[in-house]
Amino acid sequence: MNLARIFVMAVSFLFGATFIYSEDEPREISIAVVPKGTDKERWKAIHEGAMKASKELAKKGLVVNILWKGNLDPDRDEQIQVVDTFTGQRLSGILVASIGKDQFSGQVHVDANSDLPMIYIDDGLDAERAISYVATDNFQGGAIAADRIGQLMEGVGNVVVVRHRQGDSNTEAREAGFIERIKSRYPSIRLISMDQHAGNDIEKAYGVAEYLLNRYGRRLNAVFASSAVGTDAMLTGLRNFNLTEQVHLVGYEASVTSLEAIKSGEIKGLVVSNPYRMGYLGVTTLVDNIQGGNIPTIVDTGVTLVTQSNIDSSEVREALGVGESEAIR
Questions:
Q1: Which one is the CATH code of 21-136+275-296: 3.20.20.150, 3.40.50.2300, 3.10.180.10, 3.30.499.10?
Q2: What ranges do the domains of the chain cover?
Protein backbone atom coordinates (compact mmCIF):
# COMPACT_ATOMS: atom_id res chain seq x y z
CA MET A 1 0.00 0.00 0.00
CA ASN A 2 1.58 3.32 -1.06
CA LEU A 3 1.96 6.32 1.25
CA ALA A 4 -0.70 8.37 -0.55
CA ARG A 5 -3.28 5.62 -0.03
CA ILE A 6 -2.33 5.29 3.65
CA PHE A 7 -2.70 9.06 4.06
CA VAL A 8 -6.17 9.09 2.45
CA MET A 9 -7.37 6.26 4.67
CA ALA A 10 -6.00 7.96 7.79
CA VAL A 11 -7.71 11.26 6.97
CA SER A 12 -10.95 9.45 6.20
CA PHE A 13 -10.81 7.71 9.56
CA LEU A 14 -10.07 10.89 11.50
CA PHE A 15 -12.87 12.86 9.89
CA GLY A 16 -15.48 10.11 10.04
CA ALA A 17 -15.91 9.36 6.33
CA THR A 18 -18.67 6.83 5.84
CA PHE A 19 -17.42 5.15 2.66
CA ILE A 20 -13.90 4.24 1.57
CA TYR A 21 -13.55 2.67 -1.86
CA SER A 22 -10.56 0.64 -2.94
CA GLU A 23 -9.41 0.04 -6.48
CA ASP A 24 -10.80 -3.50 -6.26
CA GLU A 25 -14.33 -2.40 -5.26
CA PRO A 26 -17.06 -1.77 -7.87
CA ARG A 27 -17.49 1.78 -9.08
CA GLU A 28 -21.07 1.23 -10.20
CA ILE A 29 -23.85 -0.73 -8.51
CA SER A 30 -27.62 -1.05 -8.95
CA ILE A 31 -30.18 -1.01 -6.16
CA ALA A 32 -33.90 -1.71 -6.50
CA VAL A 33 -36.40 0.17 -4.33
CA VAL A 34 -39.87 -1.40 -4.02
CA PRO A 35 -42.37 0.89 -2.22
CA LYS A 36 -45.90 0.04 -1.09
CA GLY A 37 -47.32 2.40 -3.70
CA THR A 38 -46.45 5.35 -5.91
CA ASP A 39 -49.23 7.90 -5.51
CA LYS A 40 -48.81 9.14 -1.93
CA GLU A 41 -46.42 11.91 -0.91
CA ARG A 42 -44.78 9.46 1.49
CA TRP A 43 -43.49 7.24 -1.31
CA LYS A 44 -42.43 10.23 -3.38
CA ALA A 45 -40.40 11.49 -0.39
CA ILE A 46 -38.73 8.08 0.03
CA HIS A 47 -37.79 8.18 -3.66
CA GLU A 48 -36.36 11.69 -3.31
CA GLY A 49 -34.29 10.60 -0.30
CA ALA A 50 -32.94 7.60 -2.21
CA MET A 51 -31.98 9.80 -5.15
CA LYS A 52 -30.27 12.28 -2.82
CA ALA A 53 -28.12 9.47 -1.43
CA SER A 54 -27.30 8.34 -4.97
CA LYS A 55 -26.13 11.84 -5.93
CA GLU A 56 -23.94 12.17 -2.83
CA LEU A 57 -22.35 8.78 -3.38
CA ALA A 58 -21.62 9.68 -7.01
CA LYS A 59 -19.59 12.65 -5.77
CA LYS A 60 -17.54 10.18 -3.71
CA GLY A 61 -16.78 8.04 -6.76
CA LEU A 62 -19.52 5.41 -6.64
CA VAL A 63 -22.36 5.39 -9.17
CA VAL A 64 -25.53 4.00 -7.56
CA ASN A 65 -28.34 3.31 -10.01
CA ILE A 66 -31.74 3.45 -8.30
CA LEU A 67 -34.36 1.19 -9.90
CA TRP A 68 -37.74 2.36 -8.59
CA LYS A 69 -40.63 -0.02 -9.11
CA GLY A 70 -44.05 0.15 -7.50
CA ASN A 71 -47.68 -0.10 -8.48
CA LEU A 72 -50.26 2.61 -7.92
CA ASP A 73 -52.28 0.54 -5.46
CA PRO A 74 -50.55 -2.83 -5.15
CA ASP A 75 -51.79 -5.90 -3.35
CA ARG A 76 -49.46 -8.30 -1.58
CA ASP A 77 -49.16 -10.76 -4.47
CA GLU A 78 -48.26 -7.98 -6.91
CA GLN A 79 -45.52 -6.71 -4.64
CA ILE A 80 -44.12 -10.19 -4.17
CA GLN A 81 -43.98 -10.53 -7.97
CA VAL A 82 -42.04 -7.27 -8.23
CA VAL A 83 -39.53 -8.41 -5.61
CA ASP A 84 -39.19 -11.83 -7.28
CA THR A 85 -38.52 -10.12 -10.60
CA PHE A 86 -35.74 -8.03 -9.09
CA THR A 87 -34.13 -10.97 -7.30
CA GLY A 88 -33.57 -12.58 -10.69
CA GLN A 89 -31.72 -9.55 -12.09
CA ARG A 90 -28.13 -8.39 -11.78
CA LEU A 91 -28.53 -6.19 -8.72
CA SER A 92 -26.32 -5.34 -5.79
CA GLY A 93 -29.17 -5.02 -3.27
CA ILE A 94 -32.83 -4.22 -2.73
CA LEU A 95 -34.94 -2.03 -0.43
CA VAL A 96 -38.49 -3.21 0.25
CA ALA A 97 -41.36 -1.45 2.02
CA SER A 98 -43.54 -4.51 2.49
CA ILE A 99 -47.33 -4.43 2.47
CA GLY A 100 -47.62 -7.43 4.77
CA LYS A 101 -45.70 -8.34 7.88
CA ASP A 102 -44.94 -11.93 6.89
CA GLN A 103 -45.47 -11.80 3.15
CA PHE A 104 -41.95 -12.63 2.04
CA SER A 105 -41.44 -15.52 4.44
CA GLY A 106 -40.72 -18.62 2.38
CA GLN A 107 -41.60 -16.91 -0.91
CA VAL A 108 -38.39 -15.14 -1.78
CA HIS A 109 -34.93 -15.73 -0.36
CA VAL A 110 -34.30 -12.58 1.66
CA ASP A 111 -32.37 -13.70 4.72
CA ALA A 112 -28.91 -12.50 5.68
CA ASN A 113 -27.24 -15.31 3.71
CA SER A 114 -28.97 -14.41 0.44
CA ASP A 115 -26.90 -13.52 -2.59
CA LEU A 116 -28.99 -10.34 -2.79
CA PRO A 117 -28.69 -8.14 0.32
CA MET A 118 -32.09 -6.77 1.34
CA ILE A 119 -33.11 -4.00 3.70
CA TYR A 120 -36.65 -3.41 4.87
CA ILE A 121 -37.81 0.21 5.00
CA ASP A 122 -40.88 1.73 6.60
CA ASP A 123 -42.75 -1.38 7.75
CA GLY A 124 -42.34 -3.23 11.03
CA LEU A 125 -41.06 -6.48 9.61
CA ASP A 126 -39.02 -9.19 11.27
CA ALA A 127 -35.54 -7.66 11.14
CA GLU A 128 -33.87 -11.10 11.27
CA ARG A 129 -35.12 -11.74 7.73
CA ALA A 130 -33.06 -8.86 6.34
CA ILE A 131 -29.63 -7.43 6.91
CA SER A 132 -31.19 -4.30 8.41
CA TYR A 133 -34.47 -2.50 9.06
CA VAL A 134 -34.60 1.26 8.35
CA ALA A 135 -37.77 2.81 9.72
CA THR A 136 -39.58 4.74 12.39
CA ASP A 137 -39.99 3.46 15.95
CA ASN A 138 -43.77 3.59 15.73
CA PHE A 139 -44.26 2.36 19.29
CA GLN A 140 -42.27 5.34 20.54
CA GLY A 141 -44.25 7.61 18.21
CA GLY A 142 -47.46 6.44 19.83
CA ALA A 143 -45.99 7.13 23.26
CA ILE A 144 -45.10 10.67 22.17
CA ALA A 145 -48.72 11.20 21.07
CA ALA A 146 -49.90 9.95 24.46
CA ASP A 147 -47.65 12.40 26.28
CA ARG A 148 -48.98 15.23 24.14
CA ILE A 149 -52.56 14.31 25.00
CA GLY A 150 -51.66 13.85 28.66
CA GLN A 151 -50.21 17.36 28.66
CA LEU A 152 -53.23 18.89 26.93
CA MET A 153 -55.70 17.16 29.27
CA GLU A 154 -53.58 17.79 32.36
CA GLY A 155 -53.75 14.07 33.03
CA VAL A 156 -57.53 13.80 33.44
CA GLY A 157 -60.41 12.94 31.08
CA ASN A 158 -61.80 10.62 28.41
CA VAL A 159 -59.94 9.57 25.25
CA VAL A 160 -60.91 7.70 22.10
CA VAL A 161 -58.38 5.85 19.91
CA VAL A 162 -59.18 5.75 16.19
CA ARG A 163 -57.20 2.81 14.84
CA HIS A 164 -56.18 2.37 11.20
CA ARG A 165 -56.76 -1.21 10.06
CA GLN A 166 -56.00 -4.69 11.34
CA GLY A 167 -52.77 -6.22 10.08
CA ASP A 168 -50.91 -2.95 9.51
CA SER A 169 -47.86 -3.39 11.72
CA ASN A 170 -46.88 0.29 11.68
CA THR A 171 -50.19 1.63 12.93
CA GLU A 172 -50.69 -1.25 15.34
CA ALA A 173 -47.35 -0.36 16.93
CA ARG A 174 -48.42 3.28 17.21
CA GLU A 175 -51.66 2.29 18.88
CA ALA A 176 -49.88 -0.08 21.26
CA GLY A 177 -47.36 2.61 22.21
CA PHE A 178 -50.13 5.12 22.84
CA ILE A 179 -52.24 2.78 24.95
CA GLU A 180 -49.30 1.51 27.00
CA ARG A 181 -48.11 5.04 27.80
CA ILE A 182 -51.59 6.25 28.79
CA LYS A 183 -52.15 3.26 31.07
CA SER A 184 -48.71 3.46 32.69
CA ARG A 185 -48.38 7.23 33.17
CA TYR A 186 -51.86 8.72 33.22
CA PRO A 187 -54.09 6.72 35.59
CA SER A 188 -56.81 9.39 35.54
CA ILE A 189 -57.23 9.25 31.77
CA ARG A 190 -59.88 6.78 30.60
CA LEU A 191 -59.66 5.05 27.22
CA ILE A 192 -63.38 4.84 26.47
CA SER A 193 -63.10 3.40 22.93
CA MET A 194 -60.25 1.50 21.29
CA ASP A 195 -61.94 -0.83 18.81
CA GLN A 196 -62.89 1.38 15.84
CA HIS A 197 -60.85 1.20 12.60
CA ALA A 198 -60.84 4.06 10.10
CA GLY A 199 -59.29 2.12 7.21
CA ASN A 200 -57.99 3.68 4.00
CA ASP A 201 -61.27 5.01 2.64
CA ILE A 202 -62.02 8.58 3.76
CA GLU A 203 -65.79 8.12 3.61
CA LYS A 204 -65.65 5.01 5.76
CA ALA A 205 -63.29 6.78 8.13
CA TYR A 206 -65.71 9.69 8.48
CA GLY A 207 -68.48 7.20 9.27
CA VAL A 208 -66.34 5.89 12.13
CA ALA A 209 -65.70 9.43 13.37
CA GLU A 210 -69.40 10.26 13.22
CA TYR A 211 -70.31 7.10 15.12
CA LEU A 212 -67.80 7.87 17.89
CA LEU A 213 -68.90 11.49 18.24
CA ASN A 214 -72.56 10.53 18.29
CA ARG A 215 -71.90 7.96 20.98
CA TYR A 216 -69.49 9.84 23.23
CA GLY A 217 -70.08 13.45 22.19
CA ARG A 218 -69.90 15.93 25.00
CA ARG A 219 -68.04 13.71 27.47
CA LEU A 220 -65.11 13.27 25.09
CA ASN A 221 -61.93 15.22 25.84
CA ALA A 222 -59.37 13.95 23.34
CA VAL A 223 -58.85 11.70 20.31
CA PHE A 224 -55.76 9.93 19.04
CA ALA A 225 -55.89 8.85 15.37
CA SER A 226 -53.07 6.55 14.26
CA SER A 227 -53.22 7.38 10.53
CA ALA A 228 -53.51 10.38 8.22
CA VAL A 229 -56.91 9.22 6.94
CA GLY A 230 -58.26 8.76 10.46
CA THR A 231 -56.91 12.15 11.51
CA ASP A 232 -58.53 13.98 8.59
CA ALA A 233 -61.83 12.16 9.07
CA MET A 234 -61.97 12.94 12.78
CA LEU A 235 -61.12 16.57 12.08
CA THR A 236 -64.10 16.78 9.73
CA GLY A 237 -66.29 15.14 12.35
CA LEU A 238 -65.21 17.53 15.10
CA ARG A 239 -65.91 20.48 12.83
CA ASN A 240 -69.36 19.18 11.92
CA PHE A 241 -70.20 18.53 15.58
CA ASN A 242 -68.73 21.91 16.67
CA LEU A 243 -66.31 20.14 19.00
CA THR A 244 -62.91 21.37 17.77
CA GLU A 245 -62.46 23.63 20.80
CA GLN A 246 -63.60 21.03 23.33
CA VAL A 247 -61.82 17.92 22.01
CA HIS A 248 -58.04 17.76 21.65
CA LEU A 249 -57.14 15.94 18.42
CA VAL A 250 -53.68 14.42 18.04
CA GLY A 251 -52.92 12.50 14.86
CA TYR A 252 -50.19 10.59 13.08
CA GLU A 253 -48.65 11.55 9.73
CA ALA A 254 -49.41 14.76 7.88
CA SER A 255 -51.68 15.83 5.05
CA VAL A 256 -52.39 19.24 3.57
CA THR A 257 -55.63 19.32 5.57
CA SER A 258 -54.07 18.35 8.89
CA LEU A 259 -51.17 20.80 8.54
CA GLU A 260 -53.61 23.65 7.95
CA ALA A 261 -55.52 22.50 11.03
CA ILE A 262 -52.29 22.58 13.07
CA LYS A 263 -51.85 26.21 12.07
CA SER A 264 -55.45 27.05 13.01
CA GLY A 265 -55.20 25.19 16.32
CA GLU A 266 -57.91 22.66 15.45
CA ILE A 267 -55.37 19.83 15.65
CA LYS A 268 -53.14 19.97 18.71
CA GLY A 269 -50.38 17.69 17.49
CA LEU A 270 -49.18 15.49 14.63
CA VAL A 271 -46.53 12.83 15.06
CA VAL A 272 -44.72 12.57 11.73
CA SER A 273 -42.02 10.26 10.46
CA ASN A 274 -39.33 11.29 8.00
CA PRO A 275 -39.78 9.31 4.77
CA TYR A 276 -37.16 11.41 2.97
CA ARG A 277 -34.58 10.38 5.57
CA MET A 278 -35.87 6.80 5.35
CA GLY A 279 -35.07 6.63 1.64
CA TYR A 280 -31.70 8.30 2.14
CA LEU A 281 -30.59 6.06 5.01
CA GLY A 282 -31.98 2.98 3.29
CA VAL A 283 -29.65 3.51 0.35
CA THR A 284 -26.58 4.54 2.34
CA THR A 285 -27.00 1.67 4.79
CA LEU A 286 -27.36 -0.85 1.98
CA VAL A 287 -24.35 0.53 0.12
CA ASP A 288 -22.30 0.37 3.31
CA ASN A 289 -23.19 -3.31 3.64
CA ILE A 290 -22.38 -4.02 -0.02
CA GLN A 291 -18.99 -2.38 0.53
CA GLY A 292 -18.29 -4.68 3.48
CA GLY A 293 -19.18 -2.37 6.35
CA ASN A 294 -20.78 -3.44 9.62
CA ILE A 295 -24.30 -2.03 9.77
CA PRO A 296 -26.83 -1.98 12.62
CA THR A 297 -29.78 -4.36 12.52
CA ILE A 298 -32.18 -1.49 13.14
CA VAL A 299 -31.74 2.11 11.93
CA ASP A 300 -34.26 4.40 13.60
CA THR A 301 -35.21 7.34 11.36
CA GLY A 302 -36.96 9.15 14.21
CA VAL A 303 -40.27 10.96 14.64
CA THR A 304 -41.18 14.61 15.13
CA LEU A 305 -44.10 16.09 17.04
CA VAL A 306 -45.59 18.96 15.02
CA THR A 307 -47.52 21.63 16.92
CA GLN A 308 -48.73 25.15 16.24
CA SER A 309 -45.65 26.55 17.97
CA ASN A 310 -42.99 24.63 16.01
CA ILE A 311 -44.54 24.09 12.59
CA ASP A 312 -42.14 26.53 10.92
CA SER A 313 -39.02 25.14 12.59
CA SER A 314 -36.16 23.58 10.62
CA GLU A 315 -36.74 20.22 12.33
CA VAL A 316 -40.35 20.08 11.16
CA ARG A 317 -39.44 21.28 7.68
CA GLU A 318 -36.92 18.45 7.33
CA ALA A 319 -39.43 15.86 8.59
CA LEU A 320 -42.03 17.10 6.11
CA GLY A 321 -39.53 17.34 3.25
CA VAL A 322 -40.09 21.08 2.85
CA GLY A 323 -37.27 23.38 1.66
CA GLU A 324 -36.31 26.55 3.49
CA SER A 325 -37.95 28.76 0.86
CA GLU A 326 -41.13 26.69 0.55
CA ALA A 327 -44.36 27.23 2.45
CA ILE A 328 -45.66 24.37 4.56
CA ARG A 329 -49.05 23.39 3.20
A1: 3.40.50.2300
A2: 21-136+275-296, 138-273+309-315
Phi/psi at 174 (5° precision)? -60, -45
Contact yes or no for 297/127 (Cβ under 8 A) = yes
Give the mean pLDDT of 8-17: 38
49-58, 62-71, 242-251: which has the minimum mean pLDDT? 62-71
| CATH assignment, 138-273+309-315 | 3.40.50.2300
What is the C-alpha to C-alpha distance for residues 175 and 152, in angstroms, rounded to an integer?
19
pLDDT per residue over 284-322, tens digit each?
999 998 888 888 888 888 899 999 999 999 989 888 876
d(CA 120, CA 125): 7
pLDDT in tens, 85-117: 655 567 788 887 755 544 444 333 343 444 677
All residues at 6 or more sequence positions from 306 whose CB lies less than 8 Å from its CB, including other chains: 254, 259, 262, 269, 270, 271, 272, 316, 319, 320
Instruction: Give the pairing type, strands 248-252 and 222-225.
Output: parallel
DSSP 182-237: HHHH-TTEEEEEEEEE--S-HHHHHHHHHHHHHHHGGG--EEEESSHHHHHHHHHH
Distance CA 171, CA 295 (A): 26
136-181 per-position pLDDT tens digit: 899 999 999 999 999 999 999 999 999 999 988 889 999 999 999 9
Helix (H, G, I), strand (E, B) or coil at 253: coil
For the chain, give the number of residues: 329
Query: What is the separation of C-alpha 234 from the centre of its chain, rounded to a whole number of angstroms?
Result: 21
Rounded-to-integer distance, Cα 134 and Cα 29, Å: 20
The model's pTM is 0.75
C-alpha 148/C-alpha 225 separation (Å) is 13
- Asked whether the domain spanning 138-273+309-315 has the same topology as the one spanning 21-136+275-296, the reply is yes
Residue type, 324: E
